[in-house]
Amino acid sequence: MKWSWSTLNLKLRHTFTIAHRSSDWRTNVLIQLDHQGITSWGEAAPNPRYGEDEASTREALGPLTAVIHADSIEGRWWEPLSSALVGSFAAKAAVDIALYDHWGKVQQQPLWRLLDAPYDGHSGLPLCMTIGIDDVATVIKKVKQAESFPCLKVKLGGSNDREMIEAIRSVSQLPIRIDANEGWSSRERAIREIEWLAPRNVEFIEQPMPATLVDDCEWLKERSPLPLIADEALKTESDLSHIAACYHGVNVKLMKCGGISPARQLIQSARDLNLKVMLGCMVESSVGIAAAAHLAPFADYLDLDGNLLIENDPFQGQNVRRGHLYLSQSNGLGVSPHRQVNHASDE
Ligand code: MG
To answer: How far is residue 100's CA from residue 288's CA, in Å, rounded to a whole number?
Structure first.
């Protein structure tokens, strides 16, 4: 069993701005597992919002991969992996994804089938395209490029929220999902914006206020005319206890909770609390996105366009047509590299 990893520098198609930050590049870590003559892949997309970066991820990968033994293959790896280190969720996700890829290849099954996902094998699952915070001309250009998608996800929480929405509505009537990324700093601002958005064909609001404002989030849920979805407020299952009082649903991301294994459990626990389930992502290559895609049939809403926001995806295999995702019939994750991956300077 040989593990290796390397830096994955992903170039964004457009400068990506959300409340509080802007970027042109993302640095992820690609992990490769060679075992039993099979090559498998995983990806970590560490996010500074959760105190993780490339350096901390690389540091975690050694101890995490060391606890995986040949007899852990076939789904019995999550317990040693989760208890090997505190935190380091993106690194855990990378290892977990690679092990699932391997297991699917050994079993000669696509992951969605191995996971018993309720998918008929051929239907398109509706995606939405993300529009970052931008000037009106750029927003209009991006909305026109996204017209084949069934809905738009719009980042707000900047200084021109209403201007952006009015610009979108001047060229498109597609349903809009809002993500404020904690950008509305008070409950008064949040309710004002939500009431203005409600009659404009908006489906829900993701993370309107800072996750730490628990009492204000509860106040907002009682008054909001639109459903509220927790993203930054929910990392792992242990956060679920206070979520139902403040939100109507949760955004589950493999990079926040540590991979496919804990995401399956988190989805089930959210369902038990009657919460809606959204499946989201970071900016990731097709490796990370494919891993989440195999869980897509378990979710109410999909936000899995992270690989479509980059121009140098080193992997292929994600099948998106007219804004709909078609799950792979290939074994494991169903992705393969465009070219030879070189880990020469790594691990
Ligand atoms: Mg979000």
So the answer is: 12
d(CA 100, CA 103): 5
* Assigned token pair, 90: 């993106």
The 10s digit of each residue's pLDDT in 202-247 is: 999 999 999 999 999 999 999 999 999 999 999 999 899 889 999 9
Give the total residue count for the chain: 347
CB 36 within 8 A of CB 106: yes
Give me ligand 1 centre to Cα 181, in Å.
6
Kindly give the distance from the C-alpha atom of residue 232 to the centroid of ligand 1, in angstroms, as a whole number: 7
CA of 37 to the centre of ligand 1 (A): 39
Q: How far apart are CA 245 and CA 126, in angstroms?
A: 28
Provide the angle, in degrees to the nearest 10, between the axes of the packed helices 187-197 and 214-223. Answer: 30
Residue 198 to residues 165, 176, 177, 195, 210, Cα–Cα distance (Å): 12, 10, 11, 5, 21
Tokens of 53: 């970066």
38/11 Cα distance (integer angstroms)? 29
Distance 174 CA to ligand 1 centre (A): 19
